[in-house]
């Protein structure tokens, strides 16, 4: 949907994100100024400063532009939703999974093209224990991958960071017991990894489920039953493409509400790569929660 012209925007940049992009950023900002968009630039030192800046300026803003990775953007989700402000993404992170879900290629010049064009689409937000997220929340192996994915690993391994972190996490993965209520239907099983997706992508381009869209009003859950390292490696191509439903070692379901308990042991939950909660966990989806700027698709649909 084409919205009224954007006149005032706030650009929030994570200073740690993609070093060396200054020239491209300056060129893009010059393009926005030429298009009649006045941009205030903030090099934020953290989520608290970013969210406060948005709240203080909300009455005078037409758009919030966030330049950074998925963690930086996800930290803004609650504030953007509460302030009812549109979001534009400058993919400056390692994975840029939200950008992928929105149909962006990762090129900065394209991201600025999208802002100038002004094409909009409403997307869903996932919620876990009152924390909002865009992409995917994890228990088990996915949490351990996030813990292995340090700034140093990202710096030295670049696009291979997630692969490096995955193999390091495999060495210490443990199985756990989980009780689930999925739209009121109960399941009980052992698992080494659970992923609950609102968006389509996670972990640098993995697909949480081939049927998932970030605007479909549902969450997609998959759970990996305990298996050997070799079995996990043979499963990897299916996990990459979101086709794990075709393997009997994987439990797969879509729902609007999911509850997970893990017995007496509370387990950490990471969402969009950041620690946000622990079990027992209550997951839900807020349909059409947020307006975002997207490439001009023929049918205005987000990519499948």
Question: Could you give a short description of this structure?
Answer:
By secondary structure, the protein is an alpha+beta fold. It has helices spanning 22-34, 47-57, 70-74, 77-83, 97-101, 108-117, 141-148, 151-157, 161-170, 229-241; strands spanning 8-13, 38-43, 63-68, 87-91, 120-128, 131-133, 136-140, 176-182, 185-191, 193-197, 201-202, 206-207, 219-224, 250-255, 257-261, 268-271, 274-278, 281-293. The mean pLDDT is 89.
- Between the first and last Cα atoms, what is the distance in angstroms? 18 Å
Count of beta strands: 18
Secondary structural class: alpha+beta
Q: What is the CATH architecture descriptor of the largest domain?
A: Sandwich
Beta content comes to 25-35%
Largest sheet: 6 strands, antiparallel
> What is the gyration radius calculated from CA atoms?
19 Å
Average pLDDT score: 89
């Amino acid at each position: 949907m084409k919205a009224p012209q954007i006149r005032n925007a706030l650009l929030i940049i994570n200073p740690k994100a993609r070093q060396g992009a200054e020239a491209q950023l300056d060129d893009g900002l010059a393009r926005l100024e030429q298009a009649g968009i006045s941009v205030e630039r903030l090099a934020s030192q953290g989520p608290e400063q970013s969210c406060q800046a948005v709240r203080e300026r909300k009455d005078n803003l037409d758009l919030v532009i966030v330049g950074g990775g998925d963690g930086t953007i996800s930290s803004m989700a609650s504030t953007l939703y509460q302030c009812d402000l549109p979001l534009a993404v400058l993919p400056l992170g390692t994975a840029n999974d939200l950008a992928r879900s929105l149909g962006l290629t990762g090129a900065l010049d394209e991201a600025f093209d999208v802002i100038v064009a002004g094409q909009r689409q409403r997307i869903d937000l996932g919620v876990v224990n009152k924390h909002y997220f865009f992409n995917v929340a994890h228990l088990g192996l996915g949490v351990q991958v996030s813990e292995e994915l340090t700034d140093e690993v990202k710096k030295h391994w670049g696009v291979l960071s997630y692969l490096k972190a995955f193999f390091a996490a495999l060495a210490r993965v443990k199985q756990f017991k989980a009780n689930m209520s999925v739209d009121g239907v109960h399941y009980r099983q052992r698992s080494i990894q659970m992923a609950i997706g609102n968006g389509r992508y996670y972990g640098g381009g993995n697909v949480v489920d081939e049927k998932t869209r970030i605007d479909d009003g549902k969450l997609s859950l998959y759970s990996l039953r305990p298996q050997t390292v070799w079995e996990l490696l043979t499963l990897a191509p299916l996990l990459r493409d979101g086709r794990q439903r075709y393997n009997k070692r994987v439990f797969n379901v879509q729902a609007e509400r999911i509850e997970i308990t893990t017995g007496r042991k509370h387990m950490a939950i990471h969402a969009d790569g950041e620690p946000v909660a622990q079990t027992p966990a209550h997951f839900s989806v807020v349909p059409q929660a947020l307006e975002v700027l997207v490439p001009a698709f023929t049918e205005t649909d987000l990519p499948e």
